[in-house]
Structure of Acyltransferase:
Amino acid sequence: MTTAIVEPRVIRDQFARQENPPQREYYIDHLRTVLTMQVIVFHCAITYGSVGGWFYFEVKHSEALSSQILSLFVLTSQAYFMGFFFLLAGYFTPPSLERKGYARFIADRLLRLGLPLLAFCIFLGPLTIAMAQTAQGRDFWQTMLSVWKGMYFVNGPLWFTQALLMFSVAYCVYRWLTRTPLNQARRDSSSVPRSVWWLASAVVVGAVAVLFRVRYPVGKNALGLQIGFFSSYIFLFAVGVAAWRHDWLRQLTWARARWWILSLPFLWVLMPIHLSLDRTPDTWSAVSFAKGMPWAAIFWAVWEPFVAWGFIAAFLLAFRKYTNVKTPMWLWLDRRAYAAYIIHPVLLVGAALLLRSWAALPMIKWACTGSIAVAACWLVADPLVRVPGLRRIL
């Protein structure tokens, strides 16, 4: 389970053709920055005992309390933050396409999404693997050469840019087939869908997730993508597209989302209760469909969208109300978030290896290593975004 990020830049002039453009949506950039930090501590949790896939494992998943707590954090995060990124990516896809046109839009996507993916597959991915394998006593350079010679497709967290590139092309095909002139597209203010539609979509997305995971259990890749999670990713990308067209993010209110937000504690607690009652000895096997169709796996697939809708609505409302401001600190963090995401596997694994000999409890090491890795990612990203050739990509 990995995550990813959309463009972390300050939002461009997506409202250029409107007579009365709405307030600048700085809070969305801030959201993506905070979610990027969550990506890093998410992978750090897997390093120290959570369920999930990652480059380096210092503590194996077990029935220990720390392992179970970290697993709950990972399972909860996985329920919403990947889909959240796709929703935000979908939100800015229509204005970008309409402003640039098909050719320039695809060229920009290839530059900003395709090149980082290629760089990770060729260099950063093998580098991270080689670093992680030194903990097993394997030679660094031999591992690098082995990965290169084997021509392994190591997309790591950059699977998101791969998927987003595919979604972007699919959206272009959709717009071309519907024959809507790009220069005539307009926004309207259709109301945010009622709660009954939220409920119906959660049921459908959960049911489709079950079907996907029967064929592609969690942990099984196809083209480097975990198809088992894609029912929510596809749906939320489409919601993002519709949200821009109908101005839903500005219109979202507490009254419309309150039942989903208020139900979050009750929905969330079902997961630890269910896992405690499940008799499968390994949590990951229980929720991954790796061994047939266990009840826990079906429960997780259906539980995810119900939790996701509440978390996404809560974050949107809170960030819009409290963080929709432009400050030097936010601007500095936002501008470096995409670069931080791309390089975070190398720096997180490096930080974990540096602290490997430290005899501390897994939870303490998770907090310390995660904090160090987050800080390191932004500090290293800072000079990268200043390089003229990289500035346009990052």
Observations:
- The radius of gyration is 21 Å.
- Residues 2 and 157 are 5 Å apart (CA to CA).
